[in-house]
Amino acid sequence: MNAKWTILGKKFATLCILPLAAVSGCMSLNAPDRADKAKGAENMQVRIAELEILPEWLDAYLDAAGAVGAESVAKEPGVICIFPMQKKESPTSIRIVEIYRSEEAYKAHLATPHFRAYKEGTPHMIKSLELVPMHPLDPEHANGIFRKWL
């Protein structure tokens, strides 16, 4: 490993940080040529779903979101990550990090029975929803975080 950083006697090529309610990002400290490293990730789909849940439906929504995320990652090879989180200071504010191998994998996910059941069973629980498309800054190191990436 061509690491530039040594922390407690161990060498690291990357540093993973958890800013703002544990939304993880991974930045290379060696700053390799991003154009070469990102070629395989051109079609990767990354988004953050920002939801506000009605308080009376919070427990039911948390169960549904956790179940569909776990099932999607377990059953769908193109789903790299579905990671629901709850703001500590505002429990009805939910953020979900979604990472798909490609646009095709995302479309296939939308057609699965478990996602359709979630989508049809939760609208009355959701006060607001915004899907925020993201651009991964360091997709070549995703395999260090998400083993399924390989």
Describe the overall structure.
The protein is 26% helix and 32% strand. The two termini are 18 Å apart. It has one domain: Alpha-Beta Plaits (2-Layer Sandwich). It is α+β, with helices and mostly antiparallel strands and 150 residues long. Helix 2 packs antiparallel against helix 4. The strands form 3 sheets. The chain has a 4-stranded antiparallel beta sheet, covered by helices on one side. The chain has helices at 34-37, 58-75, 103-110, 113-121, and strands at 5-7, 10-12, 14-17, 25-28, 45-53, 79-86, 93-100, 126-134.
Question: From the helix content, strand content and strand pairing, which structural class follows?
Answer: alpha+beta
Number of domains as seen in the coordinates? 1
The major pleated sheet works out as:
4 strands, antiparallel
Give the class-level CATH name: Alpha Beta
Q: Which strand-content bin applies to the residues?
A: 25-35%
What is the CA-CA span between the terminal residues? 18 Å
Order of helices and strands: EEEEHEHEEHHE
